[in-house]
Fold:
Amino acid sequence: MALDSEQLNPSDQVILDCLNEGRCTAAYIAQETGYSKGNIRNRLVRLVEHGYVAQLGGGLYELIEDPREA
Structure:
């Protein structure tokens, strides 16, 4: 089941904003946004499960599709 923009929380929004700028690690996103690394990791897992983000290895993530643009 896909997420729609109403199901995205504030953490998801900042993750998507960061990934729109390029590939990122959870640690980088946490440092840039002030959210905890654990929170960012948990939300990234959810975004990966829904097919919006890909985990490339080594903790690096890449945006595949922004659900806010659907």
Observations:
- The chain has one domain: 9-63.
- The chain has a mean pLDDT of 93.
